[in-house]
Structures are given as structure tokens and as C-alpha cells.
Amino acid sequence: MGNLSFEKILSYRPHICLLVFLLVLSSGGSFLDIQKELFFAAIGFSFLMAFVYLFNKWTDTDEDQINIKGGPLDPAKKNRVLYGSLLFLTCPLFFLYHNLYLLLIYFVVAGIGLLYSYKVSVFGKPFRFKDKFLIKNLSSAVMWASPPALVPAALRGALWPLDIVSFIVVFFIVVPIEIVWDVRDIEGDRRFGIKTIPNVLGVQWTKIICIALFCIPGFLMLKFSFFKSSLVALFISIGLILMVKESRGPMFYHNLVFLWCGATIIRLVFDV
């Protein structure tokens, strides 16, 4: 019963929001180097990611009948999730409004989050990023990579080459993790005609592709002397991906998020 309740808590993705908060904070150095503006920006973008995942939970009624233990949300909870997601979306605007660059990043990421989950009509046909092969994974990676790479640039008013490197590193860490996460949802995605790499190429090829993609951030981390904690987390991620199979329960995939939370905390506290 304890495991089930913990799994239900994780279905609202609090650990995802924590990781975004930590990633944005770590872009400013160690805990001792963090400025007030960066701290509030980290809170704002963690709230934005809460909106993205809660809004996705609100829209995924059909898929959750298969993919989520216990099925989709009941109507009363569904309304609360929607109102909660909109609250998370609007609250950060009260302390990000002073910086136009931050607002631009915020609204772009929010727009991608909306199009990721919500179906709109394009030439009379329903469209959302989540239903499109690879666009689903790439759009999610853009949402993840933008805050830690671009928030520091917005606060200083200048984009440095290392900001672009940081964006590429986070982007190519998130893409394989997102692809592997699709193994968890493979049955529901097949049922509803959502094409993903696991249900098109199979689990084994998925693991090969993901490990190959990890070589990109690995090379950049070594070349630009990124923190050792991030490099260690990358190698452990490869080990976890090698253990992926269709029979793995949902909790297994959350370990990747916990791993990167731990690595980022170590980086913030010990500056390694």
C-alpha cells in the first residue's frame, strides 16, 4: 500500500519539478554563488514544468486507462488537476515580469508544453506534439534544456558560448531518457497509434540508440570539463538503460530522475 501511494505521488511528477529547480540553480554555480534572481527564476521554471506535466495528466485520459495503474483520473480530480496546472502556470508571472528575456523563454516553453499535450486542429486534423514520431521526444528535450541554459543568459543579458553547450548537453541527456521512458508506455502507445522508437524499432534497438545519443553529452562534458558528478550520473544512466525491458514497472524509470536529482545536489553542495 505504501509503494502504491508513493507511486501515485510520483505520478504528479514532484521529482521532475525538483530536478528543474536544481538544474536552474546549478547553472549559477554552487549554493554559495546563487543570486536571489536566479533562485526565484528556478522556482518559476519548476512551477512551469509542474504545469506541463499536470496539464499532460489532464489530457491523457485514454492513454492512462492502459499505461497508469488505477486508470485515469476521476472527473472531480481531473478538474482539480486542470485548475492546479493553470495556477502553476500563472503564479511565476508575478516574479518574472521584470525581465523580458525571462518572460520570452517562459512563454516559449509554456507554448511547447501546451502543444505537447493539447490537441489543436491543423487543416481539419487533430495535432499535438505528443502524437508525432520523434517530435514528442525532441519537444520535451527543448522544454528541459531551455531553463538551465537560457535563464542565466537572460539574467546577465548576454548569451555565452557555454550556454549553448549547456543546452546541447541537457538536450541530449533528456532525449534518450524520454525515448527510454516510452518503453513504459509501449502498450498504450500501440493501442492508440502513437508511434515511438520502442514500438517502431523494438526495445533492443531503442537501448542502442539511446546509449549512442549519450555519447554526445559525454564528449562535451569531457571537452569542456563539466562537473564530475554529472559525468558519473551519465555513466550510471547508461547502466540503467541497459537494464530496460518491457516487463519493468513504472517505478524503475523514475530512478533516472532520482539519479540526476542526486547528481545535481552533489554538484551544488560540493561543487564537483
Structure report:
This protein is mainly α. It has one domain: Orthogonal Bundle (Farnesyl Diphosphate Synthase), CATH 1.10.600.10. Helices cover 75% and strands 2% of the residues. It has 14 helices and 2 strands, in the order αααααααββααααααα. The protein has a two-stranded antiparallel sheet with strand order 1-2. A hairpin with a 2-residue loop joins strand 1 and strand 2.
Topology record:
Elements: H1 2-10, H2 14-26, H3 36-59, H4 61-67, H5 75-90, H6 93-96, H7 100-117, E1 120-122, E2 125-127, H8 135-156, H9 161-184, H10 186-191, H11 197-201, H12 203-223, H13 228-242, H14 250-270
Antiparallel strand pairs: 1-2
Kindly report how far apart the N and C termini lie: 38 Å
Number of strands: 2
Largest sheet: 2 strands, antiparallel
User: What is the succession of H and E elements?
Assistant: HHHHHHHEEHHHHHHH
Structural key phrases:
272 residues; mainly alpha; 75% helix; globular
What would you say about this model in short?
The chain is mainly α and 272 residues long. The protein contains 14 helices and 2 strands, in the order H-H-H-H-H-H-H-E-E-H-H-H-H-H-H-H. Helix 3 runs parallel beside helix 7.
